[in-house]
Write a structure and sequence with these properties.
single chain; 0% strand; 78% helix; mainly alpha; 10 helices; globular
């Protein structure tokens, strides 16, 4: 029993150390923001494993874009740690779903490649500030469609407003990971215009 008690204290201390890291706080906050039920209904995204992965990729891409506004020696390690945390979570999720050890590496590699493709596509569209292009990129990556619908256009509006809201967050809050991304990225009536 004493060994179990020591182990639990150790694990609790390790969890507190992890939670104190800015990338972990940012990851937990962006995870919650990407899982807001109204996003799935408003933008007609299916609430299943692929849909959740797609929404998480979108929101992490937005966050990484904001982090790139920090000095390079700050944003590079923070973005890398965020990426590593994201895929450690994907590994854990797949294991919980019963994917065997032999299949985990291949699945996580495919997911990381899918994420990197989305990150590039979202970043390029956001840099061009082109709502129509962004809507098409979202249609391709989230609905697997070559055509935009109204939900894709509404999501493009949301993404552009979210980018602007993230840009307004102080560098100190971003660097410390103390930002409430659920509140900042909440779907508001003003996100449509």
């Amino acid at each position: 029993m004493l060994l179990f008690s020591r182990l639990m204290r150790f694990l609790g201390a390790q969890q507190r150390k992890l939670e104190a890291r800015p990338a972990e706080r940012l990851y937990q906050s962006i995870l919650k923001a990407s899982r807001q039920p109204n996003l799935y209904t408003e933008f007609e995204v299916r609430d299943h494993l692929d849909g959740r992965f797609d929404m998480l990729c979108l929101h992490i891409s937005l966050l990484m874009g904001r982090l790139r506004m920090l000095p390079e020696d700050v944003h590079k390690p923070l973005n890398q740690e965020l990426f590593d945390r994201f895929f450690a979570d994907m590994d854990f999720t797949l294991r919980e779903m019963g994917v065997g050890d032999l299949g985990i590496g291949k699945r996580v590699r495919k997911m990381s490649e899918a994420f990197m493709g989305r990150l590039v596509a979202y970043t390029e569209s956001l840099e061009r500030n082109d709502n129509a292009e962004l809507a098409l990129v979202l249609a391709r990556n989230i609905r697997r469609s070559h055509y935009c619908n109204d939900a894709d256009r509404r999501m493009a509006d949301y993404v552009l407003v979210s980018r602007d809201r993230l840009s307004a967050v102080s560098d100190n809050e971003m660097q410390a990971g103390t930002v409430d991304l659920v509140a900042i990225l909440a779907l508001h009536g003003d996100s449509h215009g």
